[in-house]
Each structure stands twice: as C-alpha cells, then as structure tokens.
Amino acid sequence: MSTRDQVLGRIRRALADAQREAAPARGAVDRGYLRVHGHRDAAQTADLLAENLADYRAIVHRATGDELPGRLAGLLAARGARRVVVPPGLPERWLAALQDVERVPDSAGLTARELDAVDSVVTGCAVAIAETGTIVLDAGPDQGRRRITLVPDHHVVVVRVPEQVVDSVPQALERLDPVRPLTWISGPSATSDIELDRVEGVHGPRTLEVVLVTD
C-alpha cells in the first residue's frame, strides 16, 4: 500500500460517521468590499492602467486603430525581430505593415525549444486591470496557448481601449471564464533573491510592451 493510499484511508475512516448534509464550516463570503477605489471616467482609467503598467516596468505605447499596424512593425523592427509567433486569431490587419518578418503560427507541435528560438510574440488580451496594472490572457483566438507568451523573450500585447479595460479585479473576474487557462501578467517576468537583487526574464518574457489602442 502506497503512502497516498494510507493517507486517503485515514481520511475516509475519519469521515465515516460524518453527516453528509452537515452545514458548511463557514458561512457565505462577505462581498461588502469596495469594487472600485475612486471615481474615474474611461480616459482616466486608461491613464491609470498605463501608469501602473509602467510602474511594473512594462513599456507602454499609445496608438489609434489606423496607427496600430505601423506601430507594431516599428516595435518589432526596433527589437530586430525576424521571427514572430502569431496566434491563429490575431487580426491580419494588425500585422499588415510587417516586412522581412517570418510569422511562426502557434500550433500544438511547436516545442519550447522552437519557441525559445523566435524573437517575439504578438497577442491580444482578454482584459486589462487599471488599479493593478495587470493584463489577463485567457487563451482566446487572438492570444494563443499559454506557452507562446511564456517562452519568447519579447511579448507585445495589444489592449483595446476602452472596451477591454476595467478599473478593478472584481470587475475583471466578472468578465473571465474560470474554466479557461488564465494568465495574469503584471510587468515582465521578474524575481528577487534574499538581497532584493531583481532579475528579469526568469519564467517569462524579459521585455513586455503594451500598446493601448483607441479608435
């Protein structure tokens, strides 16, 4: 008998005389907390998002819908990107200005080693949270699998303003499906040791660029 079986057996014996209809150990969770801190219009919410993203060392850009293809092409050119991972549902017009760039389609057969050899990845997002400076991905068609946003060293995220921007985490949770694979991103991947020496690019992109797009 394995250790796991022994532990589960003890739990079953301990619960053998418990009533199946027993009341829960605790009551309903109090939801009386503030949903939003302060009052902001859409422009102020977008400004707060940009401020908090920058505070987490993400690089924030602004563009209109018409400017977006040129802006993305410029960001990738400045990075020297020649191979870029592209989710299957990314709008084609976003990448219309790319030149001399190989698009690597996201597929189940794409290995971590192959992803490590690409220069950048461009995705959309599910929602962006202004109060925390957080981008949330849910593996939607314009975001692709979680793997493509964790292995490449440079990630460019497009956020549509104002429709994809919310003030707070409670508002974001209302928009998200908890059964989907959610990735919450607050700045580039980083960690600190006991002496607080910050190291970036540990378990995700070293560089995160966010383009806030308004029409």
UniProtKB/TrEMBL annotation:
<dbReference type="InterPro" id="IPR037171">
    <property type="entry name" value="NagB/RpiA_transferase-like"/>
</dbReference>
<dbReference type="Pfam" id="PF02589">
    <property type="entry name" value="LUD_dom"/>
</dbReference>
<protein>
    <submittedName>
        <fullName>L-lactate dehydrogenase complex protein LldG</fullName>
    </submittedName>
</protein>
<feature type="domain" description="LUD">
    <location>
        <begin position="105"/>
        <end position="213"/>
    </location>
</feature>
<dbReference type="InterPro" id="IPR024185">
    <property type="entry name" value="FTHF_cligase-like_sf"/>
</dbReference>
<dbReference type="InterPro" id="IPR003741">
    <property type="entry name" value="LUD_dom"/>
</dbReference>
